[in-house]
Amino acid sequence: MTKDKLYQNPEAPAEFIFNSQVAEVFDDMLxxxxxxxxxxxxxxxxxxxxxxxNGDLVYDLGCSTGTTLLxxxxxxxxxxxxxIGIDNSEAMIKKASLKAEMxxxxxxxxxxxxxxxxxxxxxxKAFILxxxxxxxxxxxxxxFLRRLHNVLQPGGILLISEKIISHDPLLNRAYIDFxxxxxxxxxxSETEIARKRESLENILIPFSILENTELLQKAxxxxxxxxxxxxxFASFIAVKEEK
Length: 243
Ligand SMILES: C[S@@+](CC[C@H](N)C(=O)[O-])C[C@H]1O[C@@H](n2cnc3c(N)ncnc32)[C@H](O)[C@@H]1O
What we know:
This protein has a seven-stranded mixed sheet with strand order 3-2-1-4-5-7-6, with helices on both faces. The protein has one domain: Vaccinia Virus protein VP39 (Rossmann fold, 3-Layer(aba) Sandwich), CATH 3.40.50.150. It is an alpha/beta fold. The protein has helices at 20-33, 37-51, 67-75, 90-102, 138-151, 169-185, 190-200, 209-218; strands at 57-61, 82-87, 109-113, 124-130, 152-163, 223-230, 233-239. Helix 2 crosses helix 3. Helix 4 links the parallel strand 2 (82-87) and strand 3. The structure holds S-adenosylmethionine (SAM). The site of S-adenosylmethionine has 19 residues, from helix 3 and strand 2.
């Protein structure tokens, strides 16, 4: 795994983009920047195991280098689920496809380069949307989620993870500090933390737990609950009503 040193470089892009340099170090960046990344995948596997049947189709939207899907496909081997990962970054999809080949998972897991807001999506039993909606402009989020709700089979689920904010200023400040402590503990310097934070300003726009819950409800989901929270990171399950 190539170590993420992107923001040690003063010439790193002022605005964060998912280009080939990011794709190269992305697996290390995720492990060191997203608290409890593996635990969230564990909890998603448990939920997919409950809600999916043999032969179901599951999409990962904004799949990056395919880590989540490849891990889920390994853990849910007996279910014979078909997984499709979509991402609009060519470099990410290239890496994901290489990893699928390396782990002999090409029969069950495929990757597609496309814009998830525009490409056709087939009826499916589950969507995974991990740390991706936060990069969508707030104004388009509801319509996008509604489209996912419409294409889900009855009883299907959306599993979503997001960076979040608190509207309580005292707690919001504390949560940000805890997150920076986490990044320091992962070996990032003050300069790297500050440069990355600036590059994500106006690009990653987090909602609160309540705002995300209401968004999912307004998109049509009848059962919505957070299933995980680590200070300013949260994951939710949203279920489409069984007919
Ligand atoms: C933070 S990463 C997601 C990490 C990944 N889901 C995981 O858990 O390993 C966000 C990803 O969303 C992709 N992305 C953002 N907007 C997109 C869009 N409109 N269509 C497709 N992919 C998009 C980016 O290229 C990037 O790879």
